[in-house]
């Protein structure tokens, strides 16, 4: 990763008009370092420095920059003001705001409307196919001699059933974010913003919806409220089933992401424990009676 000192030199050369400025780390982020820039004239920006080996997660910084610009153009992301391609540093305008409350019905409706706007945007570069991403993460971890949990074989059997069921439905491809944790949303003064576009690309909107539902820990009522606001109508049993199946599958993706981190990360984070938490939740949901109901409802 580029050091803060190197970033300061590069930014000084790129933005001579800033004059004297300060750089301060923004907490959070496992695959990058975010720095708050404050110029002498009072302007604020965020510089995003890429982490080491992030390409192993399918992250392409050129694609991230391009999609960030599209997201800004449709009014759901901060403005990207520069991309230092050689060093893959993305600079965006700082937006004042605060965290969202994931259990608040008003927030859920706002998130649903934001996702609908994103999924209606023009085509963007990059692709995100959830089953392929899971397979890639498994292969990558093995390349680094990571031993997966013994439950992985059983998990892949269930994931195969989910993927086969989903493939029976007609699919559309749309711009998707693919990392809808609460920390990536920012409630501004007059709108909701979505941050951190490093996993974004063309994909299945239901992957976004399911990812949002699992990361917000939505119950059935929350899932239904999300879908009603997203669709603008009552969701069909098939639509709710697709949401739930991809909500469940999202946990397997998170678990396999963690085991890539087990192999490559130098951070003081217990990625094995994090991965097991998501793998066990995936298996709990996959073994529930509801799974067969959802599998049967898809495409009905």
UniProtKB/TrEMBL annotation:
<protein>
    <recommendedName>
        <fullName>Aminoglycoside phosphotransferase domain-containing protein</fullName>
    </recommendedName>
</protein>
<dbReference type="GO" id="GO:0005737">
    <property type="term" value="C:cytoplasm"/>
</dbReference>
<dbReference type="InterPro" id="IPR011009">
    <property type="entry name" value="Kinase-like_dom_sf"/>
</dbReference>
<dbReference type="Pfam" id="PF01636">
    <property type="entry name" value="APH"/>
</dbReference>
<dbReference type="GO" id="GO:0006646">
    <property type="term" value="P:phosphatidylethanolamine biosynthetic process"/>
</dbReference>
<dbReference type="InterPro" id="IPR002575">
    <property type="entry name" value="Aminoglycoside_PTrfase"/>
</dbReference>
<feature type="domain" description="Aminoglycoside phosphotransferase">
    <location>
        <begin position="23"/>
        <end position="220"/>
    </location>
</feature>
<dbReference type="GO" id="GO:0004305">
    <property type="term" value="F:ethanolamine kinase activity"/>
</dbReference>
């Amino acid at each position: 990763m580029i050091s803060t000192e190197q970033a300061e030199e590069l930014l000084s050369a790129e933005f001579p008009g800033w004059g004297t400025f300060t750089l301060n780390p923004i907490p959070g982020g496992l695959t990058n370092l975010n720095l708050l820039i404050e110029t002498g004239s009072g302007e604020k920006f965020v510089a995003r420095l890429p982490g080491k080996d992030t390409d192993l997660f399918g992250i392409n910084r050129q694609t991230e920059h391009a999609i960030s610009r599209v997201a800004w153009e449709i009014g759901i992301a901060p403005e990207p003001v520069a991309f230092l391609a050689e060093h893959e540093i993305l600079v965006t305008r700082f937006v004042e705001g605060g965290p969202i409350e994931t259990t608040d019905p008003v927030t859920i409706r706002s998130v649903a409307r934001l996702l609908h706007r994103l999924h209606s945007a023009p085509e963007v570069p990059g692709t995100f196919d959830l089953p392929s991403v899971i397979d890639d993460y498994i292969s990558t971890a093995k390349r680094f001699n990571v031993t997966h949990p013994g439950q992985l074989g059983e998990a892949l059997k269930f994931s195969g059933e989910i993927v086969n069921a989903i493939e029976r439905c007609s699919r559309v491809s749309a711009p998707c974010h693919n990392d809808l944790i609460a920390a990536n949303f920012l409630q501004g003064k007059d709108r909701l913003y979505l941050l951190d576009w490093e996993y974004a690309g063309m994909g299945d909107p239901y992957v976004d919806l399911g990812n949002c539902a699992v990361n917000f820990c939505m119950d059935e009522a929350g899932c239904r409220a999300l879908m009603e606001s997203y669709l603008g109508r009552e969701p069909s049993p098939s639509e709710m089933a697709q949401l739930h199946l991809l909500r469940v599958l999202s946990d397997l993706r998170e678990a396999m992401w963690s085991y890539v981190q087990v192999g490559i990360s130098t951070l003081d984070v217990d990625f094995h424990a994090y991965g097991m938490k998501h793998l066990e939740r995936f298996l709990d949901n996959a073994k529930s009676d509801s799974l067969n109901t959802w599998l049967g409802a898809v495409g009905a």
